[in-house]
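Submission checklist for the structure archive. All mandatory fields must be present; incomplete records are returned to the submitter.

[x] Identifier: 1-deoxy-D-xylulose-5-phosphate synthase
[x] Organism: Yoonia rhodophyticola
[x] Residue count: 641
[x] Sequence attached
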Amino acid sequence: MTNRPHTPVLDAVAGPADIRRLSDDALASLAADVRAEVISAVSETGGHLGSSLGVVELTVALHAVFDTPRDKLIWDVSHQCYPHKVLTGRRDRIRTLRQEGGLSGFTKRAESDFDPFGAAHSSTSISAALGFTIGRDMGRPTGDAIAVIGDGSISAGMAYEAMNNAGHEGRRMFVILNDNEMSIAPPTGAMSKYLSSLYASPMGDLHKMAEGFESALPGPIRDHARRARQLVTGMQTGGSGTLFEELGFSYVGPIDGHDMSQLLPVLRSARTRATGPVLIHVCTTKGKGYAPAEHSADCGHGVAKFDVQTGTQAKAKSNAPSYTKVFGSALTVEAQQDPNIVAVTAAMPSGTGVNIMEERFASRVFDVGIAEQHAVTFAGGMAASGLRPFCAIYSTFLQRGYDQVVHDIALQNLPVRFAIDRAGLVGADGPTHAGSFDIGYMAALPNMVVMAAGNELELMHMVRTAAAYDDGPIAFRYPRGEGVGLDLPERGNVIEIGKGRIVQEGSDVALLSFGAHLSECQIAADQMAAQGVSVTIADARFAKPLDRDLIRQLLRHHKAVVTVEQGARGGFGAMVLHDLANDGLLDGRCQVRTMTLPDRYIDQAAPAAMYADAGLTAVDIAATAMQAAGLKLKRSPVGVA
Ligand SMILES: Cc1ncc(C[n+]2csc(CCOP(=O)(O)OP(=O)(O)O)c2C)c(N)n1
Ligand SMILES: CC(=O)[C@@H](O)[C@H](O)COP(=O)(O)O
Ligand SMILES: [Mg+2]
């Protein structure tokens, strides 16, 4: 039996309709209950604790003031949506967050009417809210749209594209800027400085209300607001006000996002008065109300299961270093050898491991904020200048910079090194974060070299190879989590471009692995060996250029060749098939099969369970190879009932 918090006000709330019946005092008590419930639930599941704790009061206030789900509340990234889930009929499943079969860690249209728009990649909320706004104005049965976006997420270009459009449209909609002066790491960039300057203006603790809004406020706040508006207006030179006002929004704020006596009247006033787009600047504390989160370096951004009393998080079971750490360390070794090596991250210094290089060579590591498109082209500019940039971005987020990869890098044949972390299925973050597509989208590009690491030692070789390769763009992918636990040298070797390697020689079937499912291929080979089947394992290393000699050799000497990759259809296997078909080699004696992720999104679970769902376990590999070779199972492979 777990220690559940005492939550009398929350217990009486089945949904937002109940919230709207509460007095303002009771709403503050409700917020306290929700905070306790979120801490307790996340201690059992792990997840995005800090961001969720920071918006507890804001979530209560938004549901109290707006008519959700008719009004569309759209959470940017939506990693802060746990209080929203607790309050919108999902409290009974909140302890299944991010678990197999449980609630998603993000908003999801299929999960609830209160989730009008799914998210997990940042900076989409204002665009989606504007879309709903147009729908409303064209007669769709929907109310107001409210986008809640963080100070980190509002640094991305897409948010400005949306505000530019929304300001031009001039329609009534709401953007809540949730400013906690934090991204995953402390935010970088001029926009972040600008937001801080709004706090620190001579207004002191006064709030600026868009003209006309203050008359709806209670007395003391109204007087404050009116004075603030006069002050701010008086301070302006040239333009009409804040950056947001220049873009066509009415700006309100900054206000204290943990103080219901500020949040409620301001939101009510905005809801009553707004005729065009309004931006309400709300200041919050990431991790608010839970000391271990508030005081940790990332403010409890993403936590494992933890002990509520102490805040101590559960440790990973494996002792092997993570691929991310191996990458970061290998990059640092290369950076030590070559002063032209620089690294770029888009707001994920620790997630990508470039923080390891930053500790030694801070001036050569660039955190550009959530700005993958810019990160790619920025790296392109550095490459064109003669530097050797490593652009370290998760597979799923590199999708956002794809045109830049095509147009700015590959087309110009610029030697940018793409370090693609979180390749393959990632676990609890689920399908939004799966790195499923990069093999196909990178290998499709002329000039691009595409590698995948079979294990952590291979990753070291690929980092060194990429550092040494100046002929054009080169990418290498590797998964989330720990390596297989190999002894690692100080530095990797340069490997030959376009050459794979034989890991184990056999004569019946060949497993041609591309990437970290190499270990699963080894298990499959052992299972088949137990059946008396002789198995070759080859590590392709390259999807582009393909090792055509190696593939033909495998074809000549085996009854079946099975390609295996942690990626979607259209990736490595497709490259192999294409190559063989065009040489008329698919009609011979050797059967060829490709094993990829299936053509559907895989729901969150532990990575191994996700791969099982995808049909990519060792047992699946062995069964596919045996069947293709026309070999019969003498008995069930090890591990199968
Ligand atoms: C396109 C994209 N890039 C990177 C990320 C990874 N990411 C998730 S949350 C986050 C920080 C967001 O900061 P902010 O919007 O201020 O929200 P907070 O966590 O502070 O509440 C980042 C970088 C992402 N989800 N989407
Ligand atoms: C919400 C988001 O996009 C990130 O916080 C992400 O969940 C981090 O994933 P990793 O834990 O794999 O770094
Ligand atoms: Mg933030």
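[x] Structure attached
Curator remark: The pocket of magnesium ion (ligand 3) is lined by residues 150-152, 180, 182-183 (CB under 6 Å). Residues 202-206, 230-239 have pLDDT under 50 and may be disordered.
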